[in-house]
Amino acid sequence: MTALARRRLLAAVALTPLAAWAPTASAQGLPDRPIRLIVGFPPGTGPDLVARVLAQRLAEQLRQQVIVDNRAGAGGQIAAQAVARAAPDGTTLLLGEVGSIAIAPAAFEKLPYAPARELAGISEAVRSDFLFVVPATSPHASLAAFVKAARLRGDRTNLATFGAGTPGHFAADMLGEAAGFTVEPVHYRATGDAVTAIIAGDVAGAFVSTALGLAQIRGGRMRALATTAPARLAALPEVQTFAEAGWPALDVSAWFMLMAPAGTPAALLDLLQRQTVGALQHPETRTKLSEAGFSITGSSRPEAERLLVAEARRWAGVVRSSGFKGD
């Protein structure tokens, strides 16, 4: 074989897998430009981790660049509004979550977007239960001891939240009501500020997502007293569930869903749903997200839409019962 023929053969072999592997995203209907995955929380947080792991895998599968765009602020509302206003062509996506999608419409009368009308569910990606944590320096080693002290104190017990109207805010109110003590929610605009306050002992405790809490607990900066999960966590087998403690109604969890602007063609939504489920089923993806404290879902589009309807109804009742008004 001549040198020229050998070079041609090698070139053909190199190109064969590329052509046979899969059609490009643009060939499947997506515009041939980068996809933006907008997430409403800053880099380094649990939602940001989910977005980056998912973006990396989607980029490989779609063979199209997927850029994570952090639009932190207002409990995810800034990000949700940005996607609600975007062109419905499949290139602007949202990692939506329970706070800005299911809770905010009931909690804020002047919400600048309407999730039910302006956003379409693609697939629930992951879910994270909550941990009730106290500073590592707290004198309370159990939930029972914490509640007893809160009742005896008589005045309000300060609990940090990651913003007014967020799941952790309502979970704190629910705990106070169920356990018989008065909660004073201390709202922090930035995740880092709330974490710092908890670690420093500026507040008595807080509800944090399992994904966030695990890192702080493993680092010896926080102590978990209970989990909202239905069963004890493998990563924290010594931590009881709220059901075990006698408060089964505290079943708050945070879900994260890939979403697109309403009006996005059904064919594109179906494509993105299939690719999202495929990305979540990848062993490396499952390992990274599971180790970070997330439960992997990967739902169908009808399942995602049913979840949105059910959660909006549920949280409307919780907000109404609490009397909370965000504006």
UniProtKB/TrEMBL annotation:
Signal sequence range: 1-27
Keywords: Signal
Repeat among keywords: no
Family annotation (InterPro entries): BUG, Bug_dom1, TAT_signal
Family as reported in the entry's similarity comment: Belongs to the UPF0065 (bug) family.
This protein's name: Tripartite tricarboxylate transporter substrate binding protein
Native source organism of the sequence: Sphaerotilus natans subsp. natans DSM 6575
